[in-house]
Known about the structure:
The structure is a homodimer.
Chain A: E1 2-3, H1 11-26, E2 32-35, H2 41-52, H3 58-82, E3 87-90, E4 97-99, E5 108-111, H4 114-121, E6 125-129, E7 132-135, E8 141-143, H5 148-159, E9 165-169, E10 190-192, H6 193-201, H7 209-218, E11 222-226, E12 234-237, E13 250-254, E14 257-266, H8 271-281, E15 286-291, E16 298-306, H9 310-324, E17 328-332, E18 335-341, H10 351-361, E19 368-372, E20 375-381, H11 385-395
Parallel strand pairs in A: 1-2, 1-9, 2-6, 3-6, 4-7, 9-11, 10-12
Antiparallel strand pairs in A: 4-5, 7-8, 11-12, 13-18, 14-16, 14-17, 15-16, 18-20, 19-20
Amino acid sequence: MKFGGTSVGSVERIQAVARRIHDRVKSGDRVIAVCSAMSGETNRLIELADQVADRAIDREMDVLLSTGEQVSIALVAMALSDLGVPARSYTGPQAGISTTSAHTKARIRNIDPQPLQTAIDAGQVAVVAGFQGANSADGEVTTLGRGGSDLTAVAIAAAIKADACEIYTDVDGVYTCDPNVVPKARKIDRISFEEMLELASSGAKVLQSRSVELAMKANVPLVVRSSFSDAPGTWVTEEVSEMEDIVVSGVAYNNKEAKVSLMDVPDQPGIASSVFSTLAAENINVDMIIQNVSTDGITDLTFTVSETDLDRAVATLESLKPDINWGRLETDQSIAKISVVGVGMRSHAGVAAKMFQTLADNGINIQMISTSEIKISVIVERKYTELAARELHSVFGLDSPGS
Amino acid sequence: MKFGGTSVGSVERIQAVARRIHDRVKSGDRVIAVCSAMSGETNRLIELADQVADRAIDREMDVLLSTGEQVSIALVAMALSDLGVPARSYTGPQAGISTTSAHTKARIRNIDPQPLQTAIDAGQVAVVAGFQGANSADGEVTTLGRGGSDLTAVAIAAAIKADACEIYTDVDGVYTCDPNVVPKARKIDRISFEEMLELASSGAKVLQSRSVELAMKANVPLVVRSSFSDAPGTWVTEEVSEMEDIVVSGVAYNNKEAKVSLMDVPDQPGIASSVFSTLAAENINVDMIIQNVSTDGITDLTFTVSETDLDRAVATLESLKPDINWGRLETDQSIAKISVVGVGMRSHAGVAAKMFQTLADNGINIQMISTSEIKISVIVERKYTELAARELHSVFGLDSPGS
């Protein structure tokens, strides 16, 4: 059972978390709880560091930020004891979580299941600090970066072969689309890992790709549910044949990307590789890529990056001009990516045609297209984000019947 | 260099601490810094725990409270790096501090000097979390109780054979008496460990007895000085012969004690032992003890305890009534202890007489007397605290000449 920052954000919320764990234990389940820092705490600590020093030191940031989860686990363990549930807190290092040495963005290398298994065998609830571990080189505390607590929970569930990993959050499950944009969005009862992965990487924020990937690899069923209600939530599991009956499971959007076009690029071998390896070396993630057919040995290269990386991407490309001799550089921040996702696409033809027709019928021009086996993504003008999402949601039969 | 909670209480104070360490390093000294939690932080965490659970769990309290110092050391290390001083934070466990297993009131067992010596040899400033360690049994984090950060600093200074241990605080040294009570109190330039120990146990709050005892045992000179100024502070060192010239070094008072009298106690062997061992088993510290000469096999037993322990002391004594068969129990909270301390007393006669005469001249009745080789303490009515302290301060020549 993994509880995020809002779920442990106050004294009352921590007590509610303890009651929920208590009820589960009383019903006969054996539980490991993973907790994030109380909401606001991580930002408070980052702000202190920003004020104290001009340059943050990654190692010290981890020493600093790991205290947030440590506070949560001590409080949750005490709240559980108060309810008569034997409980014991574990920092990431104490829970046997080994990571790489990359401070502030470490990756989990291995989890020694022994400390937590010992707690379970002793009838204790282990309350584990999310988002942190110890590097295998010298045992220094490390943190896992954004979404790290989900990763901790999934990795522990995999290591101890848990029946399920429940992610408690402030929404009651995964939706067919963001309900803020598509009011008729429905909660999904069950979805495959592959679909969840495509939705997550297409902009759905409820779960991060890294966690879903890990759960898929270890085949740990995920449950996304609300810490504020008893609603059953969404199960994310292996694909089962019934899932194919649903052609499109969800519609996702991302309106935080920017488009970069490199015009009049000499069409020579190694140019694209040079561009994208240099961007990767600068830690700039490139999403969609399109290269037009070459005319007269000259081509155009267009791709999308996160808006926050745009300035660095442009600087990197400018630095490559002497080598690559491109003609013009154009950027566009007024774009959005709209994706439809569903394992049913594999066996149902015409999904792409239906998507493009729907957009055309609504006067929405398609700038870029990218497809995978179970996903179609298009880039359109940003002002059409909500319209495109709503129309596609409706045309693929996802609208809630009640509304 | 040990910095207390107020010394690291804000972003600006942390930066000032870093500048002070920077200047010291530039002048050629090698420095280990020990930091407390930012002022207010420990109380904030205790309050959270109080609200979350009815009963605190000692182990979890240590997990919780140790985060306070961990935040400080990360911030100080980053502030130092910002000034170009190579620095690295160490939690208590990382600094090799082993303690007993008594959570929330552990005692330091041993310090492995190797981790900190390695930092020093590498030209780094080690920034160590005060107040915490790891128990030697299973490496769990422990805290040392009130005044624990001073203890950490002195123990580290002893382990690495430091030239001195500087305690930075919000006053500029040890005074001949509390300046709030005796405006003519003077800062002491140099005082012996024994005198400091007597002053600390007589009510002076600037240093705690445990830290002074440890410094005396390891012969580590202590320096008490202000983190808000460059004033030289007070050196606490081994006794040197010049110290004997000063008959009385300081006057201390404690008006937080209560007097307990057990009247009409059968004067049999083992009675006093039974009373005080039972109180000790309840963790009630007894300060002064007086037993009158027995008349007709019946005696009176009077002693003082901390006011906060009074109710528990009375309950304990009531529980002993069937065994000891004492007659009456009287308590008095309107008392104060006044002490004069000085190694010069050993070689100068008449200090006690002068003290008693001064109190008598001011109409102050003496209720109890207790003496050591270098200290005389009396119990008087609490309303005379300030008057007694001021008159004794003056008669023993301690008044500041300027005022």
